[in-house]
Design goal:
Blueprint lengths: L4 E6 L3 H16 L3 E2 L8 E6 L4 H20 L4 E6 H5 L2 H7 L5 E4 L3 H9 L20 E5 L1 E2 L10 H5 L3 E2 L2 H13 L4 E5 L16 H8 L7 E4 L11 H7 L3 E6 L7 H6 L6 H14 L4 E8 L6 H14 L3 E6 L17 H24 L5 E10 L4 E5 L10 E5 L10 E9 L3 E9 L17
Helix pairs in contact: 1-5, 7-8, 8-9, 12-13
């Protein structure tokens, strides 16, 4: 019998990517390997995103493109998993996409492995069966599944259900295994990482987990994503400030700067409440890089309220920022409200915020000129003859990069180097390698100036 192969297409967020990695590892354990060539595969698996309308359309387009391969090879299986089958009834999807052989809801990686291997009672340990799709030196650690928050605009609870936290021992086991295989940076993710542990029978909290992770020998960087501002406890701050391997970085999606709209969105804090959280973090960790996400064009957003948001961004001066135009999502609370902000107005408001943010980021990046910064090398660009890396202030895919002109033999991907910064723009730093980094932890690690009691 010839070797069985699959071609995996993973769409959407980092949480979906982790599911894809668990699937690939599980299949590898059954001697079914992933191939980059869809023509060489016995089955194509599409891990879909269903979060926003544009993402759903991309998922459908990808499925239809994959279905074209079945015309020349009818024996090829087409499987669809993830958020799209969790967002809609399976029988509706079967009617709409008859080309698909089988649909699997989000989190059902074991069922996909069982289906493809023909072993319906196969044991499946996602901590063990995981094969990275990221570069070997960094990985995501998904600490929760689902969400209990009920934000008015968000469909995540519809697709991924109520929050389920993993235990600290299981997360430590996975993180230690990742480090043994060469991972130097772990990014903590979940729909709301700051609610971690609230649902467990024996309650633990995010600061407990981060303290434990920070003890792992060989783990240089720990990065916190998706911290809900209303749930960000001041108990997290001493751990972040004192642990040398927790990055001076915090991803805190605030969504808006108007108190009325924040209440409408069911975000739990008003404008001043968010500002207090930000001040608390910056007082304790002066060089922290704050990333946030915003929504423009939410129902009833007036021009005056958009100006409140603009002024909010101008006042806070976030280090990293992304803007989404509001998407009217069926099944959410906000779906009951009229989608009354014209699409072009949404785009114009998004662009105006981003132009402001570009000026802010350019000014912040220029403050690094002539400094020596610790940089993790992610890749070598053969065409440009340069290495591309990141500082502790930047997460992969979503933040800025450091470009380093050098010969390929001058450095190694996945290693840390001290880099002299020589130029900067709004998204990139430019520099030259000063020396390798041999010390453990973040080279510019902050010390707490004021730790809340």
């Amino acid at each position: 019998m010839s070797e069985q192969k699959i071609h995996l297409i993973s769409l959407g967020c980092a949480k979906a990517l982790v599911d894809s990695e668990v699937l690939i590892g599980g299949l590898k354990g059954q001697e079914i390997r992933n191939t980059e060539d869809p023509n060489d595969a016995n089955a194509i698996v599409v891990n879909t995103c269903g979060f926003l309308e544009d993402a759903r359309q991309e998922s459908v387009d990808t499925i239809l493109e994959a279905a074209e391969l079945k015309k020349t090879d009818p024996s090829k299986k087409l499987l669809v998993m993830g958020c799209l089958p969790s967002r809609f009834e399976i029988d509706e999807l079967e009617d709409a996409l008859p080309e698909v052989d089988k649909f699997f809801e989000q989190g059902k990686m074991a069922e996909v492995v069982q289906y493809l291997s023909g072993k319906p009672y196969m044991e499946f340990d996602p901590t063990f069966w995981r094969s990275l799709l990221t570069p070997n030196h960094y990985a995501y650690l998904k600490i929760t599944e689902g969400c209990n928050n009920g934000c008015s605009f968000c469909s995540i609870p519809i697709m991924r259900g109520k929050q389920e936290s993993r235990t600290i021992p299981s997360l430590m086991k996975e993180a230690e295994r990742l480090v043994r295989y060469g991972v130097k940076e772990i990014m903590i993710i979940g729909q709301d990482t700051t609610a971690y542990g609230w649902d467990l029978d024996e309650k633990v909290y995010l600061h407990d987990l981060m303290r434990e992770l920070s003890t792992i020998d060989g783990l240089d960087w720990i990065r916190l994503h998706y911290a809900h501002p209303a749930h960000f406890s001041k108990k997290n701050i001493p751990v972040m400030a004192e642990a040398d391997n927790i990055c001076a970085y915090l991803d805190m999606p605030v969504q808006h700067g108007s108190s009325r709209l924040l209440k409408h969105m069911r975000r739990g804090l008003d404008r001043e409440g968010i500002l207090k959280r930000i001040r608390m973090v910056r007082e304790a960790i002066p060089n922290v890089a704050l990333r946030t996400s915003l929504i423009v064009g939410y129902p009833t957003e007036s021009e005056e309220e958009f100006r409140e948001l603009y002024d909010f961004v101008e006042e806070v001066e976030f280090d990293r920022l992304g803007v989404f135009t509001y998407s009217h999502e069926p099944g959410t609370i906000a779906a009951d409200y009229e989608n009354d902000v014209p699409e072009q107005v949404k785009y114009d408001r998004r662009d105006e915020i981003m132009l402001l943010q570009q000026d802010i980021m350019q000014e912040k990046n220029r403050q690094h000129l002539d400094k020596t910064m610790k940089v993790l090398i992610d890749e070598y660009d053969e065409q440009e003859k340069e290495f591309v890396g990141r500082t502790e202030y930047d997460s992969p895919e979503v933040d800025g990069i450091v470009r380093i002109s050098a010969n390929k033999s001058d450095a190694e991907v996945g290693e840390f180097y001290n880099v002299q910064i020589t130029d900067a723009n709004e998204y990139e730093l430019f520099g030259s390698i000063d020396s390798p980094c041999f010390e453990f932890g973040a080279v510019e690690k902050k010390r707490a100036r004021q730790i809340p009691a």
